[in-house]
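Technical note accompanying the year-one report. For the benefit of new consortium partners, we illustrate the data format agreed upon in the data management plan: each record pairs a sequence with a structure-token string. No post-processing was applied to the example shown here.
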Amino acid sequence: MTHLLTEKVGRLPTKPGVYLFKDENQNVLYVGKAKNLKSRVASYFSSRHLDRPWVAVMISLIDDVETIVVNNELEALILESTLISEHQPKFNIKLTDDKAYPFIKLTLNEPFPRFQIVRSRAKDGAKYFGPYLSAWSARLTCEFLRRLYGVHISNRSIRPLDSARGKPCLNCQLEGNSCPLAGEISEETYGFQVQKVIRFLLGKRATLSRDIETRMADAAEKHRFELAAKLRDQLRAVRQNATNQDVIGSTREDFDVIAAAKANLTAVVTLMSVRSGALNGQRSFNFNIVADQTTGEVIRQFLLNFYQNFQSVPALVALAEPIDDQQLIADWLAEIHGHKVELRIAKRGEKIDFTALAKKNAQAKLESGMMNEELGMMPLIALKELLNLPALPLRIEAVDISNLGTSEAVGATVCFINGQPEKSEYRRYKIKTVEGQNDFAMIAEVTARRFADTSRPLPDLFVVDGGPEQLATAFKAAEQLATSNWQSSQMPEARSQKPRFIALAKKPDRIFLPGKKKPLAVSRGHKGLLQLARIRDETHRYVIGFHRHRQRKKSLNTIN
């Protein structure tokens, strides 16, 4: 940090507000909010940020800091969201696709309300629903509701009898609806149909089947059998859809569920809408992230930059994990939507089932994208499924030892990141505490020394070369360090879950899990097994090379 920047940080106010980090060209690198601007900004320059390496990269680029003081934290939160949308800073999380998502607009400020598909909302007395993931899906919804309830889709206001000779429009004639253009329906009756449309778009669809049945019977009575057949097909589709959506719930509550999954520089947030206890719909959103930002940070950014724009936000939103400023964001959403909004961490009952389902769907969406874009990730996806892991094992490490009798015993660990060897993370170990040829004790020593190293993230998966006995030895050695390492505050996200341990035995290759004497059932050509064998063979090559190097130095009397 330059002298001028140091002085500027020292003079910052201690009030709540927003700070903007800028580079030498005055481009905004990052926008954040703070309860105490001076304390928060200074914290970036006073620690090593081992838990967030991207911060260290950002700090090297900072040339200036700008602050905006506001009255309270809530105002800071609102301003933070606005400035992120305006500047799209490099180091803030952002949607992969920054286009404006479509809304369904219902012009309630007109005598005969109509549908429009729009990309932004305005304070014009209309009601907006969405956002939808595509204009196509929004239009399909409008088309369905037009056929069922006769509410028009139009970019122009509806004026009765202003069409050519006051005839009903073609859609109303084909679909058996009374047309407002021909004066066939009163404002009151049309308004009653509009209220049904609103209930449908808010997810309250209990009367939908009954409405279709009524229209189907009316069409049959008027001998409009083709229309009756179309309505019958609609009824079957609605009933099938309703059957599929009645998952899990016995509660009659309305709430949303939000969960996220991430890998590499991509994250997916999944939003599930639960209405009257039944799963009503699901949407997933892709985000670009900077290095190792947590899924909690991704969810927070989704709430700030996107969820606030939803027309229908229920009183309860169940989150898969806690986020920063949780109560503050809840208060902000309540202010925007005009009713109390609670952000609650799901801990028990049906809500935790729903959050688990949302997280599973986010992970599936993430993996689906990876299969389309990165074929090299497919072995990791296969490995995740094979071992029933909660997420992709993006960081896999393996251990092996090598000795010739009692001569120059050594060990080594290798590291694969995103399915590829990361040689800068390889480590070699001279055995220090074991005398004689005790392979189990050597594995224990190398494993313990690896997990005592708090300067590196823990692996998602740790592979031991051997069988159940070697696995048990390594697992016990690492578990003894659990209190000091796995729960270290230096790496909060990486150490929030214990690494998974497995062993891989040779001839034939067999996978062993902790506490299991029998190997995991797996076919020989399984992509996950082949990836493990590749990692095991690389570990063996690396440790043998180190052992031979030590033997050569010993023969030349140059070893120390």
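Partners are asked to follow this layout when depositing records. Residues 218 and 228 are 8 Å apart (CA to CA).
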